[in-house]
Amino acid sequence: MIDRRLDKRLALAGLLLFASAVLVGPATVHSDEDSRDSDRDSHHSDRDSHRFGIKTLSNRADLIGGGDALVEVQVPRHIDLDKVVIGLNGRDVTAAFKRNTGTHTLRGLVSGLADGRNVLEAGVKEHRKTVNFEKLTITNHPIGGPVFSGPQIQPWVCATPTPQPGSGNIPHTNPSGMTTLATDAQCNIATEFKFWYKSTSAPLTCSGIAGANACFKPYNPAAPALDVAMTTTDRGVTVPFILRQERGTINRGIYDIGVLWDPSKPASEQTAWNGKLQYGFGVASGSPRRQFRPNTTWYTGLATNERALGLGFMTAASSLTDHQLNSNLAVAAETVMMIKEHIIEQHGPIRYTMGVGCSGGSIEQNAIASQYPGLLDGLQISCTYPDSITTALEVGDCVLLLNYFGSPAFAALNAGLSTAQINAKRAAIAGHLTQLGCISWVAAFGTTGRPGFIAGLPSVGAAIFATTPRAEFPNNCLLPRGLVYEPGVNEGGLRCSPFDHGIAIWGNAGDPLFPTRANTPTDNTGVQYGLMALLNGGIGAEDFVVLNEKIGSVGLDGNLQAARAVADEFALRTAYRSGIVGDGRSWAKVPIIDLRGNDNNGIHHNWRSFALRARLDEANGHHENHVMWRFGPGLLPTTAASVKLFAEQFATMDKWLSAIEADTSHHSIERKVLDNKPAEAFDYCYLSTDTTFSTKVTDFAVCDADPILRFLSSPRQVAGGPVKENVLKCHLKPLDFAEYPAGTFTPEQWVRLQAVFADGVCDWSRPGVEQRRAVTDLTYEDGPGGKRLHRVPDSD
Fold first, then answer.
1. Cα–Cα distance, 674 to 668 (Å, whole number)
2. Series of mean pLDDT values for 10-residue runs along the chain (796 residues)
3. 699: Cβ–Cβ under 8 A, 6 or more apart, which residues?
4. Dihedrals φ, ψ of 490, to 5°?
5. Three-class SS of residue 264?
6. Residue pair 481/293 in contact by the 8 Å Cβ criterion
7. What is the pLDDT of residues 414-468, one digit of tens each?
8. Angle made by CA atoms 39, 41, 43, in degrees to the nearest 5
9. 327 in helix, strand or coil?
10. What is d(CA 511, CA 492) in angstroms, rounded to the nearest whole number?
11. Are 228 and 196 in contact (CB under 8 A)?
12. Is 376 in contact with 365 (CB distance < 8 Å)?
């Protein structure tokens, strides 16, 4: 076990080996305006050879976290580097810097930054005075956060080395996988290191760390193993296949970082890391107020991390970038930024960062790329969803539809029909392959949006939150019942929906009776459920009228209500403006390789990948940066023939990003992404009958005709909505008899339908209410809704 700061000092010598390296894909968030500022900074550094220039390399100077910053001082050519003096808040820190005569710069890890504003100055010592100096203001934030995500939710239950029992309103704790307790209210735990190695006798097919079928075994530097395998990195360096796992805490989450490491050598002599980072993102969705250790593994599994590590990649994961453990995607982006800063300060510049993940892991990648372009350089997505908030549309609609399908009204309409006929109606209304689609959604995530106490066992989380039984904590906060909202019992208690989890983004609804309730964009006003099923004969007119009379909505307490839901306009504006609804303009800045498996009877419906593609088309006029590899019948590659897709996705993305890195043109990042697309990055499918995965079919019309690969739709699309599915609240138009085939409705049915849609029906030809382009790189420090980050700080 080594404290974080001590480890940083030990790593400083290694850092300085990178003193002449060029930073590519820096670990900073940036907007278009900030990109211009970065260019300005670059020119500014050369603007006057007689002036100093100071810049932070590990992150933007106003977003530094943890009390340390990697800093470079550019020194005028006529000044001897030995005469430069550097001070921090009046304290001499010159000794932390090392010379680079080739670039006439000094680089060093500046430690001891105070929280808030710090002034770093550089100048030359002449006659006991420092003259010709430049200064840079560095704003430091606590390692426990926040930086830009706004006030952190409370309470937050720190993990402990082993689970500790709770009592009453004191919750029990999760296991941290570490040996010491948190040292403060931010749940900071001393950083620890472990070593693992791959044995020369390791099985070809392996899983986990340690055990009979282990990929890696524990390594003891004091008693080195004799069966250590060797590996050759993609830079041609052959080293022992020994990994260093770093586990620590950043932003109140627990992270893991893995990298090849030779324990017999000091930090300054570690040569295996290739400067690349693969970051793994976790599945599902949840909003607990607890510190967990990551569920996403750093060493093997879906992320092909074993292969990546052997090639010299660094890998990382955090509990706060597991979507099941944190649904606040601004916090997730902030966590990635802080972890990347930490890596740069320990190891040196990151060349580029590849994300990887399935389902909730695809949501995390897409959301971060949409909201904070530049944090991820390439996305390896699978089980794809464009974002969480539009995915929730289908979940909520399925809750309503299952309630209706179980109602006396539906039963009366379908009396005398066979089960097959009834199920065909259900599937037609939902837009799914069979009636199982909505059943799967409700069974898996039907209670995710519930803000308070959930009677009985909930439908979500029994397996996901195995370390914290939901029977003990029957709410989405995973807190004792007495702390959370319960109608008529604890009206002022903590609310636990994903929107409440992100109240710093969405804002408080302003009701004094419910102080922890967030604004929400939930809406189904004007939605004509079952419209396309009516028009194509899947259901009859009476089916359609009764469905829309009875559908209702899910209320703010997760309760079913007769009235339709009405969104809060502030929440709608925030959803689009922030990029939380995935924005195609931002996505154009990254290569995306999408493994599109099949789960049309589950929840990962094929059309989701085409929704992402449609948003790219709408924003950019093309989707050339989005590569889709379709296959079936499974959701993920699992057979000996299909698992090659993971390796090909990884290798193709690495090749793509390497080519972008080498592109020194002044073209935009969007142009570079397209110009450097490798030959292997093209759309194709393996037909469901091709069990050997031997023939790549490039004609998507052929792929679409495959009964397994074909993509279907959703309840909102059956209601007439677009495949983009990015309209949270539609504009309304008058109900028009002429828009339905002649003779569709009787006069009595039409009168009833007019009563249902007295204010009008959805006009899908128009953008949604408050729909707009995303304004990237928002900070929520000053309040919900966010504002754009200031210009990148410059030295003066």
1. 10
2. 36 34 35 38 47 93 97 93 94 95 94 97 78 88 98 96 91 94 97 96 81 89 96 97 98 98 95 97 94 92 85 98 96 98 97 97 98 98 97 97 96 97 98 95 91 68 47 84 92 94 94 87 98 97 98 93 97 98 98 95 95 98 98 91 95 98 98 98 97 97 95 96 98 97 97 98 98 97 96 87
3. none
4. -140, 75
5. coil
6. no
7. 999 999 999 999 999 999 999 999 999 998 899 999 999 887 644 444 444 444 4
8. 70
9. coil
10. 10
11. no
12. yes
What is d(CA 139, CA 145) in angstroms, rounded to the nearest whole number?
13
> What's the predicted TM-score (pTM) here?
0.93
CA dist 788 → 83, 127, 176, 317, 782 (Å): 40, 45, 35, 27, 11
Report how far residue 769's alpha carbon sits from residue 394's, in angstroms, rounded to the nearest whole number: 19
Contact criterion met (CB below 8 Å) for 149 and 328: yes
For 106, residues 6+ apart whose C-beta sits below 8 A from its C-beta are: 72, 73, 75, 81, 84, 86, 97, 98, 99, 100, 122
Residue type, 234: D
Cis peptide before 294 (omega within 30 of 0): no
Gyration radius (Cα) of the chain, Å: 28
| CB distance 315 to 305 below 8 Å | yes
CA–CA gap between residue 617 and residue 310 (Å, rounded) = 37
> Can you tell me which residue has the tokens 């539906």?
410
Q: Could you tell me which of 286, 329, 330, 29 has the C-alpha nearest to residue 150?
A: 330
Three-state DSSP string of 616-647: HHHHHCCCCCEEEEECCCCCCCCCCCCCHHHH
Say how far apart CA 334 and CA 321 lie, in whole Å. Answer: 10
